[in-house]
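Table S7 (text form). Paired inputs.
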Amino acid sequence: MSEISAPFEFSLVGQKLAGRSGILALMDDMGRALTLDPQMRMLGGGNPAVVPALQALVRERMGELLADADGFARTMVSYDPPRGNPLFIRALARLLQQEFGWDIGPQNLAITSGGQTACFFLFNLLAGRFAAGKKKRILLPLAPEYIGYADQGWEPDMFVACRPAIVWPEGGAGKIFKYTIDFAAVEQMLAGGDIGAIAASRPTNPTGNVLTDAEVARLAALAARHGIPLILDNAYGAPFPGVLFVPARPFWAPHVILTLSLSKLGLPGTRTGIVIASEQIASAVASLTAVAGLANGTIGQQIVLPWIESGQILELGPKVLRPFYAGKAAAAAGWAREFFAGTGVDWALHANEGAFFHWLWLKNLRITTRELYERLKARKVLTVPGEPFFFGLPEEWPHQHECLRLNFSRDAETVRSGYQVIAEEAAQAVR
């Protein structure tokens, strides 16, 4: 058999999607470390912790599924409709109606193979090339934003982002800062007339920033005024999984697209995402599922179905996940203060309002955080450099080279020793 002497040619879309993306590098580094280097201290990635109380519920529910021969067979042998399991979406629509008064039904829901897939579908439905050569983009009102969005567009330059304002809740001498939306910049972007949707994660990955209820309401009003949707990615947020440390009301309106996920509840392996939207959008997502993958996995929907029917799923965040992760966040912040004290490093943490991350700002290093990331990896500490999270900005911003994302959900000794190494390496790089 003759050998192929040259590589195959990829389409322009293929070249873009198959290229070296930030999310590929992140997942590849994490996967290699987990399988080939068990000594690596894993402060990178967005993997949830093994929360004992939650895992006990999952194991109990798995036992129930195994014991029900007919139910197990339906779960493992039959395809669901592309929109999702009818019992699941009907129960979830009913729960959201009853708890929040949202005027929705099963026609407003669609299941996807994870929240990442949901965003991929939505971004490409609402932005890119349109009839008569028109082009629309997705507006990110608050950079930095989730690295996994950056390369999801079929078309190049799909995203445009706004630099945030920075405030200091504890005063200028404090070690806590917070990003807030610069609404003047957002309105200026919208005035260009080429925005197909506004999108934000809440809590924000990578910073743990939670958009306030007032910020969300103002974004929703701006979206309505310009006749476009507002996409709220609640992978960590409300109404579930509820890894939130500040008050935040769940928000939905007919022009709002809400995405949820079972991953951060503790079930990332089930790859179950949920889209709540207008009937037009939900139907389009179901159609994309049918084309791309026939149907979605059933196991995640089956595991949590009784929790949705009873409303228990809304209690898991406040009663189980929030106290667990809040404790880890506080411990890690204490270690940061301990290890950076006296180093000469000008550092600060973003206010930790939700999710699993500390966003570390190192202001006076002579190297970028991408270089620091490589030095840390050599010392068996895996983090995520900040640069890839600032995609879509119209111009270079020095701040984007000064931040690291740290996942504090690992065991205490891993996190503690990892923060110690980070402080040591940063101290070696002070200007």
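Next pair, protein 2 of 2.
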Amino acid sequence: MPVAGSGLAPRPTARGAVDPSGGAAPPAVAWTAPPRVPGRLRQGLSGTPGTMRVLTVFCLLAAVVFSLFGALSINARSDALHDMQTNAEQLVRVQTIRVDLVAADAAATNSFLQGGLESPTLREAYLAKLASASRGVAEASAGAPEDAAELSAVNDRLTTYAGLVETARANNRQGFPVGAAYLRQAHVLLNDSLTDPARRDDVLTRLGRVVEADQARIDAAYESSQHASTSLWIVAGFAALPMLAAQGWLFFRTRRWVNVGMAIATVVILGGAAGAAVVMAQAQADATSVRRASLAATVNLAQARADAFAARSDESLTLINRGSGQPYEKSWTVAMDSAVRHFEDAARGGAATGRAFDALASYRSRHTEARALDDKGDWDQAVGRVTDPDGDLTAAFGRFDAESARLLGDQARAVSSSLADARLPLDIARWLVALAGVVAMVATSLGMARRLREYR
């Protein structure tokens, strides 16, 4: 029907409908649904090209696994050696605390033996060693939270020990015999070596338990580092097998001996694993050498120094407890024999103990001379031998102290630096293995792409 007032007649559309605008209707376009993605996927995965694509995906995943988990395997050994280094440093730190404490006790007992106004040199030595031990306890507590509880108890006892020493010193300066009792209490609190070990709760026993815990952590870290090589080869095998299987399938399917890209990828993975295994084996060998040699020597040297200073303290206590000091002389013998034994063990570990050992032997001989004087009843002359700052006995022990301290420091630094050096090649190998995985991915992609182009 005409539209009123327009003067124009409506035009029919392509389907016979009226176009109200009056213009020509566009031609009809048939609508078709786009192909389904699963259909395209099936088409892409069908036939020989599809199998090649599937193999490519598996090989790329294998290269990714090798790159990631191979690097993690190497990192596991590096972390284990780092833990070993950290705990070794903690062990040396705790052993140093033990040495400082027995050295402080030796200075305190020798100073007490002089009577009246003590030697300023011995007093300074006592205060310096006690302060060094207190700092060491704080550093060791911060360095290993696992040891904090035991070290906190040690710190509490050190406060008590220092108070007893000061009380003994005050009474001794006034000539009161009770000062010796306070000194004995302080010594027992520090080193209760004359009682049943099962009932000991002294400072050195607690520190000994910390040393044992540190040694156990070193052993655990060492054992953990040994398993890293196994995981590396498992990862390498997991990565290489899909690539070898893909090359076998390509050979039977295409009758071509080698796919260069896949061959390069396989060689890179196996070669990277072999190279990394060599580096890991060398790092483990270095760690084994450190554990058996320089670390063992360090522990033995620290123990030898602690035993020697304990003997020096027992020497003074034997004379302080005039007439009843025989138990301390027996304790001196035990401590000295232990010091000699640990020096011999340190020498077997490669430590150059000659000069320190000679100084200890000289001190031992001078001690025997002083004891002979006391046994003959010449107590005053024996005390003079033991306390004379310029005498042969004091000089011999001073040489031992200086030489053994220098040697212990050298060994401790050797432990730390050797373990750090063992880790450095591992850090490099970790990145090379990760890079090998990337190279294998690129080579795999290029090798398979070349075969796929032949089917287009």
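The two ends are 61 Å apart (CA to CA).
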